[in-house]
Amino acid sequence: MKKQQHILFSYGCPPKQGFGSPIIVNRHLRRLSSNWEISIVAPQQSFTGINFPDFWQPIPLPMRRWWWLPYCPQISKLLEIRFWYWQLECERVLLQKRPTAIVTVLYDIYSIFAAYLAKTWQVPLSVIIHDQEEVRAKSEVEHHLIRKNWKSVLNQATKIWSVSQELGDLYKVNNPDKISTLIPIPEGSNQSFATWKDKFTASPVVAYAGNIYPSQISYIYSIASTLQKINGTFLLVTPKNRPGVVELLNAFPNIEYQEPFPRNADVISFLKNQASCILVLYPFNLSEFPWGATSFPSKLVEFSHLGLPVLILAPPDTALGSWATKHNWYSYLSRMDEEKLFQIINQLIEKEKWIQMAHQSQIVAKSEFNPNLIQAQFESEIATVR
């Protein structure tokens, strides 16, 4: 009989619908068989409004109790005491049971706590790295502290999954052999791929879904302007309160706006019915988007399952640009070239060219972006007590 396994996941937000790391981990954990128990460690307030499967065990951590000493992340002794308090909270819920695997995403103090638990309980630690968080540091002191903490977490880890080889190579860990690349698992789709529609000839629709950063706005201006030349529409699915969105809508009558959907499956169905192409955009000036050098966009993985062409804008010296070059991606722009942008967008109205571009998406959706294959890698590589 197969041994019952037990994952404890520690992160600043529980696995849930939405975007970023929480939805990626949510997909992995929900795909596990009933042979796995699952415990979720996260801040107490972050569990509000989330419904877990019955066999998931939440372990909400309070920020403080009146008798707890205060803590400061910069003071290691106070941080260690806070972790001891949190350890007791976990043990109060788990009783005498201990997990056989601890998993975290390298992001916040709960990642460091995961490493602390792994060392204290002598349980293997698996770490997912989705982004280079230290590039968002507001000072050199903060940057140094993050790098120091990340080094201790990664050296404690038995297994490390980075979203790209470039990101994995960035961190000099004590054993490089424990790092492998794990693509962000998509929702996937049981539906058939999108097919050519004759209306694409008269009016192509390029869609962007997800958060928008200020550094991306000027590129959307260029794409919307290019689409105007062929009676095309730019479909934007993003929160309206993001910087620059209202200005975009006011500047271009051919930009159609859609509020974000509560579930990822809903946006996939919407885009399949409305779009003729999906945009994945990294600014060419990486000083404005520094984490873009090593990250890999989950929206490329996700939206490839639509079977639509994907227009990729990214510098060649990024993980995304390297991937597009390696795959000889037909609709890839490695620098801002208005003439080449027009050529690519103009091909969206030609059936034969559209089918060629769409076929590339369909190939990667069925192979390297296949959620079943990604999940199989996750389950086979997770570090557990043997």
What does this structure look like?
This protein is an alpha/beta fold. It has helices at 21-30, 76-94, 109-121, 140-156, 165-170, 199-202, 217-228, 245-251, 264-274, 298-303, 319-326, 338-347, 351-366, 371-381, and strands at 5-10, 36-43, 56-61, 101-105, 125-129, 159-162, 179-181, 205-209, 233-237, 255-258, 277-281, 310-313, 332-333. The longest helix is centred in the first third of the chain and has 19 residues, at 76-94. The radius of gyration is 22 Å and the shape is elongated. It starts with a strand and ends in a 5-residue tail after the last helix. The mean pLDDT is 92.
Largest sheet: 7 strands, parallel
Helix content: 25-40%
Shape: elongated
The residue ranges in which pLDDT falls below 50 over 5 or more consecutive positions are none
Strand content: 15-25%
What is the count of DSSP helices, taking H or I runs of 4+ residues?
A: 14
- Give the overall pLDDT as a whole number: 92
How do the strands line up in the largest sheet?
Answer: 3-2-1-4-5-6-7
Compressed to H and E, one letter per element, the order equals: EHEEHEHEHEHEHEHEHEHEHEHEHHH
Helix-strand blueprint:
Layout: E1 5-10, H1 21-30, E2 36-43, E3 56-61, H2 76-94, E4 101-105, H3 109-121, E5 125-129, H4 140-156, E6 159-162, H5 165-170, E7 179-181, H6 199-202, E8 205-209, H7 217-228, E9 233-237, H8 245-251, E10 255-258, H9 264-274, E11 277-281, H10 298-303, E12 310-313, H11 319-326, E13 332-333, H12 338-347, H13 351-366, H14 371-381
Parallel strand pairs: 1-2, 1-4, 2-3, 4-5, 5-6, 6-7, 8-9, 8-11, 9-10, 11-12, 12-13
Helix pairs in contact: 3-4, 7-12
